[in-house]
């Protein structure tokens, strides 16, 4: 192959005829070359057979589940799937956020970011709901801090130090702001 770098442009220039370059490579030297040529030589051929789907069933498509609560579905799908979950129907602010998220396509980052935020809001709603019903949540147990302390003590200490540093910095900055403003 004739390659050169000129002083004017430091870019790579190849002056080889593509047909000549293809002839220079021996097919036997390339591992896996031609694996898709002859099906008898393909290692995954027996696995690529599509097995019969659910033989001896009495239906072509399962009977659709009835929706008794609001169920969101992707904008890419024409309707609901035959079976879906209804254990936690959308409610409150998080439900409104999910409704907003499903207006966007699944390939839109807004869809996923809004759903993530809705999950966080739902946690807060759950805490408020517990408090409204007279149940004070045991946050240490529910977040698994005892297990974290027992099995990942170094990680627990690291998380506690980082959280303490963030809270300490926030308190310090708020005090400095109050001093500047003369409050």
Mean residue pLDDT: 81
Structural class: mainly alpha
What overall form do the CA principal axes indicate? Answer: extended
**Number of DSSP E strands:** 2
Which bin fits the share of residues in helices? 40-55%
End-to-end distance, in Å? Answer: 77 Å
In angstroms, what is the radius of gyration? Answer: 31 Å
- Helix run count: 7
Secondary-structure element order, N to C: EEHHHHHHH
Sheet with the most strands, sense and barrel status: 2 strands, antiparallel
Strand order of the largest sheet: 1-2
Strand proportion, as a percent range, falls in under 5%
The low-confidence runs, each spanning 5 or more residues with pLDDT under 50, are none
Secondary structure elements and pairings:
Blueprint: E1 3-4, E2 13-14, H1 18-24, H2 45-48, H3 92-101, H4 109-132, H5 139-142, H6 145-151, H7 153-181
Antiparallel strand pairs: 1-2
């Amino acid at each position: 192959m004739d390659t050169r770098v000129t002083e004017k442009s430091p870019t790579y220039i190849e002056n080889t005829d593509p047909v000549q370059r293809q002839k220079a490579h021996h097919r036997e030297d390339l591992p896996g070359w031609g694996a898709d040529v002859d099906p008898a030589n393909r290692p995954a051929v027996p696995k690529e057979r599509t097995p019969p789907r659910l033989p001896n069933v009495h239906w072509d498509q399962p009977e659709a589940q009835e929706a008794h609560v609001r169920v969101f579905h992707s904008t890419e799908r024409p309707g609901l799937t035959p079976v879906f979950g209804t254990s936690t129907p959308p409610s409150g602010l998080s439900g409104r956020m999910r409704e907003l998220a499903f207006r966007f396509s699944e390939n839109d980052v807004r869809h996923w970011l809004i759903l993530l935020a809705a999950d966080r809001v739902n946690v807060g709603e759950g805490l408020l709901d517990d408090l409204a019903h007279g149940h004070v949540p045991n946050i240490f147990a529910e977040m698994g801090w005892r297990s974290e302390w027992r099995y990942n003590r170094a990680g627990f200490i690291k998380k506690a130090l980082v959280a303490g540093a963030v809270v300490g910095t926030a308190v310090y900055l708020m005090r400095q702001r109050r001093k500047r403003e003369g409050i």
